[in-house]
Design brief:
Elements (H helix, E strand, L loop, with lengths): L9 E7 L3 E8 L9 E6 L6 H11 L6 E6 L3 E2 L2 E3 L6 E3 H8 L3 E6 H9 L7 E5 L9 E6 L3 E8 L4 E6 L11 H11 L13 H13 L9 H4 L7 H9 L6 H25 L4 E4 L8 H4 L2 H8 L5 H4 L4 E4 L4 H12 L3
Parallel strand pairs: 1-4, 4-8, 10-13, 13-14
Antiparallel strand pairs: 1-2, 2-3, 5-6, 6-7, 9-14, 10-11, 11-12
Length: about 350
Amino acid sequence: MGYDNEKNITVLAGDIGGTKTELAVYSSQSGLRRPLAKEKFPSRDYSGLEAIIEKFLSTHNIHIDRAAFGVAGPVVGGRAKITNLPWVMEEAALVQTLGVQSVCLLNDVTAFANAVAVLDESDLHVIREESPATGGTMAVVAPGTGLGEAFLVWDGAGYRAFASEGGHADFAPAGPEQSGLLAYLANRYDHVSYERVCSGMGLANIYEYLKHTGYTGNPDCPAEKNSAEQDPVPHIIRGALDKNRPCGLCKKTLEMFVTVLGAEAGNMALKTMATGGVYLGGGIPPRILPLLESGAFWEAFVRKGRMSELMKKIPVYAILHSEAALLGAARHAMTAPG
């Protein structure tokens, strides 16, 4: 793990989001699989992270040495603002509040990527079984509400995670149908990124595009009856995977989504030379495993022209661990110098 087991280190880790905040305490003696304490808090009920930490620590009287928090928003110069919340956090201020050696704020996808190095077989679903290169770079592509991307590099002693905003790169359509999708979205957005197509919002965009082009679904499909205030993603996934009466529109939506995800996962693998494997995270992949195992995902992943043979050697996994971002924040704090 990269820390001295002779000296017990206790860390406070957090997964900080606009809806919920999860905190947990880990020690180097008990390991990252057995938190000493763990709680979830509704973020909007508190004025800031400090208020949540104060309540948590007042309940669990545990000495903390270090802390790290995965944050749903950009982190610049040790300062972060939560997307969809008026919270502003600063590492220096949190060090003073907690009275600890160090505090690190991480982009939530970077925190998520940090967990990859400590996941075991039960935390992963194999999409494509190949042998990862020893010390090879690992890439993370995480479609959820948005599209998060990150990568891990071997530094000689362990894996270090690095942030990426690759999800905001220009969407590159493959074939006439996806070109039509790009043209449709270009009339709605000034910039069409992969996130506009390969995320929760992307599923909704694909669904609306296909309806616009004439595809129809089952009249009784929940996605058809979904109101503007509700998240359409669960209804689209449910309609597509319904074994008794699948909705044709939802099924087509998910098939196009999976093809785009395969292409972008392959792009990330090429850009980072991810011979150590590609890991699909976020909230969507665990819910669509049957489609990820289909030929459409893999064909799009390896369709890279002269690099196709290289792509065929890269393993692909879906991350099943529901608290990977929390685990990754804890790993970062545990392995930090000091």
